[in-house]
Amino acid sequence: MKPIIIRKDIKNINLRVKPNFDVVLSAPLKTTDEHIEHVLDKRNDWIESKLAFFRSKNIAVSQEYVSGEDCKFLGRHYRLKVTQSHKESVKLKGRYLNLFVKNKDNFIRKETLVRQWYYNKAEKYFQKVLIKYQPVVNKEIKRVRIRKMKTRWGSCNPSKSYINLNSELIKAPIQCVEYVIFHELTHLIYPNHDKNFYTYLTAHMPNWKQVKNRLENN
After folding, report:
1. Residues 25-45: pLDDT tens digits?
2. CA 188 – CA 85 distance, rounded (Å)
3. Is the model's pTM score more than 0.85?
4. Counted domains in the chain
5. Domain containing 156: what range?
6. pLDDT confidence of 86, banded at 50, 70, 90?
7. Contact present, 156 and 187 (Cβ < 8 Å)
8. Pair 98, 128 in one domain
9. Angstrom distance (rounded) from CA 132 to CA 137
10. Residue 62: inside a domain, yes or no?
């Protein structure tokens, strides 16, 4: 794959490999073609190792964690703002999700920081919703596990009183979060999706069908 060469008003050469397998080299305006070729040859092994890593992990290219990208949190849209900083953190302020990272070109580190932020927010908010609805079903919850799930928003093991919630749910609107959690809590009473299950769900959350459709189209 041919590298993308960008000349701009910077002091040093910057080389990065993106998750979509683009190799991008940014160089000062007066950098010669010969010097650029020298840098690419010198870093060839590093480039190949990065490309191999992205291929082996099958990393999705939908998000690269660069400034301007769209991020969702509880149904609202925010712009990602990436800032180079000695102190790494993620903070939501105004309409921006601010990502402070030591190396703005380190995709793995940026992804790790943002995912951990989402996980921490999910842990706190899901617990808040569980506290709200657990007294309604009046059943003990022995374990709640939050993890990324490919095909489900949540699941329940009624015999063990375990509930699993998809960490990605924290990006959905508040009503959708509450619907999924109450849905799984209802399984503690009615394990199957039978008539009794849906009668109970409708009695306590009359608009669940509309909310479910909103979640599926989110």
Report:
1. 999 999 999 999 999 989 998
2. 46
3. no
4. 3
5. 123-216
6. very high
7. yes
8. no
9. 10
10. no
